[in-house]
Amino acid sequence: MFILTELKDTIAVKPSNLNKDLLDSIVDSINYKYSNKIIQDLGLALCLHSLLDSSEGFIQHSNGNVYYKCKFNLIIFRPFVGEILIAKVKSTSEEGITASVGFFDDIFIPIYNLPPITQYDKAESTFFWLANWEEDSDPFTSSPEQRAYIDIGENIRIRIEAEHFENVYPKPKKVAIEESEQDIIPTAYRLTASIDGQGLGVVSWWEEVEEEEEEEEDAQMEE
Amino acid sequence: MEVLNARVGHLSNFEVFEIIKELGSSTVDNLRFTQTEAVKYLSNDNLSTTKQNETGITNLLQSLEQFQTLTRAEKLMIVNLSPKSVVELYVIIEELEDRLSEEDIEAILSLVSTNLGETTNLQNNNNDDNGPTDEPLFVDEDEQENAKYEQEIAEQEELENADVGEEEARGIDEVDD
C-alpha cells in the first residue's frame, strides 16, 4: 500500500521559515511542497520519511528564499495491482461505486467489477447483492431481507485491478470558466478496483458467514 | 525534481502509522490533512495496525519463512490485514488450496493471531504502563481557536458592559457636581 521513493530536488526555504532550526525548516519545506500531492507515475505523496543529504544553502538575487539541493525519501501511497485493501464506500452511482481510504478518494469500482448478481436499486440509490440467487429469476423480485445492500460508509475489502496516471495541465482562466460545466477535470492518479470474488466486498458479509459456519459446527459437535 | 529510485521498498501500514504519529502536529496544512486522515484510516477496526508492534511483526515474518510458496507481497498483505479467518487468507493468497495444505493454513492463522493479535498487545501494555493511552494524537487546533475566539468575545462584551457602567457612574458624578 505504501512505498518509499528516493528523490532529488532543490528545496526553497522561505524567509519566514528561517528563524526555525535549519533541519526543521528544510523538513517543513519538503512537506509543504510534496505532502498530499500526486507525483506523475509515482503515486500520492504522504510525507517525508527521511532526509538523506543536503547541500549548503544558496541565495539567488531575485528573492529571499534559501535553496538547498536535497536527497530524501518520501512515503508514497501506491498500492500494487492485485493488492487487497480495506476501504470505505464514499458514493454510489449507476456506473459503479467510489471507495475512499480517507486521504485518497479516487478508487472506482465499475459495475462489471461487482459480484455477479448485483443490481442498482434506484429508490435507495445503492447497489445490493443477492447471495445464493437463481440466475434465471428477476433480481428485483427479491425481498428486502434477501438483499445485501452496499451502503455509503461501509467498510469494503477491495482488490486493486488497475492504476491510471494522467497528465493534468492547468487551463487558461477564461477557457476554464467556459468549459467548467461540461468538462469533468480528470484526476492525475486514480485506481480501478474490484469486489468480485470470495472474501471481497462488504467486510461484514464474510464475518456473518463465518459465524454461521461456526454455529453449525458447534451444533454438529453437540450432536 | 528527479526520481532517483522509484521504489526503495514497501512500507507496512504499521511503519507508516508509527512515522506519522512521531511527526506530531504540523504547521503545514496539507501534511496535517494527510496525517489526520491516515491515522483515522489506519485506526480502522478492521485493520489491526494499532495493535501491532515491532517484535510481533519480526517474529511473524521469521516464522512465515517456513512456507516457501508465499511471495513477499503476500507476506506484506498478511502483516497489513492480519487475516483472522480462512476467507480473508483466501483473498490474500492466490490459489490458496493448491499451494498450502489445511494444516499450513491453520498454522498461518494461528501465527497471525499470536503475533499481531490482542494477546501481544496485552503483554506490551503490561510492559510499559506509563505510556500515554487516552491522549488524543492530534489536538484539533480549529476547536482551540474557536474556544479562544469565544473567550475573546466574552471578554469584549464584559469590557463593553464595564464601559457602560463607568460612563453611567461618571454621569451620576457629573450630575452630582
From TrEMBL, chain A:
Per the record, the major location class is nucleus
Protein name in UniProt: RNA polymerase III subunit Rpc25 domain-containing protein
Provide the Gene Ontology terms for cellular component: RNA polymerase III complex
Q: Where is the RNA polymerase III subunit Rpc25 domain?
A: 83-206
Q: Which InterPro entries match?
A: NA-bd_OB-fold (IPR012340), RNA_pol_III_Rbc25 (IPR013238), RNA_pol_Rpb7-like_N_sf (IPR036898), Rpb7-like (IPR045113), Rpb7-like_N (IPR005576)
Question: Which species is the source of this protein?
Answer: Wallemia mellicola (strain ATCC MYA-4683 / CBS 633.66)
Q: Where is the RNA polymerase Rpb7-like N-terminal domain?
A: 8-64
> Which SUPFAM superfamilies would you find in this protein's record?
N-terminal, heterodimerisation domain of RBP7 (RpoE) (SSF88798), Nucleic acid-binding proteins (SSF50249)
Where it sits in the cell: the answer is: Nucleus
Q: Which GO terms describe its biological process?
A: transcription initiation at RNA polymerase III promoter
Family, per entry: Belongs to the eukaryotic RPB7/RPC8 RNA polymerase subunit family.
Which controlled-vocabulary keywords does the entry list?
DNA-directed RNA polymerase, Nucleus, Transcription
Q: Does the keyword Nucleus apply?
A: yes
- Pfam families reported in the protein's UniProt record: RNA_pol_Rbc25 (PF08292), SHS2_Rpb7-N (PF03876)
TrEMBL record, chain B:
- Write out the biased-composition intervals (Low complexity): 118-136
What are the residue boundaries of the RNA polymerase Rpb4/RPC9 core domain, all occurrences included? 1-119
What GO CC terms are in its UniProt record? RNA polymerase III complex
Q: Compositional bias (Basic and acidic residues) spans?
A: 167-177
Record field: compositional bias (Acidic residues): 152-166
Family, as annotated: Belongs to the eukaryotic RPC9 RNA polymerase subunit family.
Name of the protein in its database record:
DNA-directed RNA polymerase III subunit RPC9
